[in-house]
């Protein structure tokens, strides 16, 4: 049951996109998001779809996985769609009942909104599919490092995030183990009412907390033993390196972005 | 009829993902009532997975586990009842202690079985004694105990359910030599006294050789051999090939054999070896 939880959703295969500098991937994803919200309808959808298709093809992530990433937000899609469909004014009116009406504008906007959210999720999940959470944190730290000048504890924040991410699988594994151990002693976790089930969690939560504290203490000690003293003068094992492919990818995205903006200024649909 | 039986038992982790791995691969096994079985294999050979299938914590991907001839994953089977009959002590069981007192923690299993106060009290006191925990310790917090005491308290927690099959997954891991001998000796005593079936998982030949009546050797998710220790150790070369060290005393006797000094039996405990040697020496040289 617990083993099915995947952290982030890193999909470990080899591809150009996987090898890209994570900082560039973050910037490109951000550009992609801005583009989705800035452009006109048709150009945005066209450019967005084009981007997602190219990026998916380059990353060799099975398209099935992209579809899977959209699944959890289907309720959001339905609600957004219904609201826009029945509450928007403008254009031809197809149908009307009290305050609910079906208009041309409503149909268009609703379709566009749904498509836009799908693209948004598909594009961003490509980032997490192709970048491991640890590398992602490194990249965020690197991108935020200018804020250090403003006395923001960027390194400490990134370190906390890295540690938290690093220990999620460990704690899941531990929870699984403790649950199995208590089940082996006849703990009943599956039946009973709310109160009974909450009570049944005690044999799991207490050992879990104890072990989390123990781990934290051991980790702090181990870090101190290796002379960890914060981010100052600290070098990295995995240095983020940017190369030609990163600039090419960025150029491609900027080009797409520029097209969308130019269309917005000069072309009227 | 064997008390526990595995037929074609298979378990595969993370099916369909890039991490797919078969931990137990079509294993057939029969365990008779009252046996003391040692299970040896390398880390990752599938020992723990196999044990967790034996008491219905993991559902086999393929194959069946039979307890008294009944499939524990049959539609109407009560897996919770199975777990009371096949008690499993996990690796590092001290991490599962959670109650305010040792007494309450040991009583957790019996309480889940729905036993009455008096019976629970008897079981707690008996098992605490069996694992050598002092009466005074019962009222203390389990977190106040020493490492070895915690381990024994946790083992007592499973024993208190009085399972017919007791499975222990590396009960001596991380203990000092004295703690190890204590746990193993107590286990043997417990086995003798109750006559229940014990399965002891370990990766140390040294540990299990002395105690068990049968050995199950696993390697790469498959059974290498399942036989009495003598017969298993007779295949020494094969065992070393899969990376399992023979007990040192057995190695000494294999060395003697290579040099032409043969003994009729396979030796795997120091005491037995010493007896054989003494008999041989006394037999060949006249007493003075």
Summarize the structure.
With 269 residues, chain A is mainly α. Chain A contains eleven helices and two strands, in the order H-H-H-H-H-E-E-H-H-H-H-H-H.
Structure description:
The complex is a heterodimer of chains A (269) and B (288). Chain A is mostly helical. Chain A is 69% helix and 3% strand. Chain A has two domains: 2-131 and 240-266, no CATH class; 145-225, no CATH class. Chain A has a two-stranded antiparallel sheet with strand order 1-2. Residues 1-6 of chain A have low confidence and may be disordered. Chain B has two domains: 4-243, 3-Layer(aba) Sandwich (Rossmann fold), CATH 3.40.50; 247-288, no CATH class. Chain B is 40% helix and 22% strand. Chain B contains eleven helices and ten strands. Chain B has helices spanning 47-54, 79-85, 102-112, 117-130, 147-159, 177-194, 205-209, 229-234, 236-241, 248-258, 270-284; strands at residues 4-13, 21-31, 36-41, 62-67, 70-71, 86-89, 165-169, 197-202, 214-219, 222-227. Chain B has a six-stranded mixed beta sheet, with helices on both faces. A four-stranded antiparallel beta sheet of chain B has the order 2-1-4-5, covered by helices on one side. In chain B, strand 4 (62-67) and strand 5 form a beta hairpin. In chain B, helix 3 packs across helix 4 (117-130), helix 3 (102-112) packs parallel to helix 5 (147-159) and helix 4 crosses helix 5 (147-159). Chain B is globular, with a radius of gyration of 21 Å. Classes of the chains: A mainly alpha (269), B alpha/beta (288). The interface between A and B is medium-sized, with 22 and 26 residues.
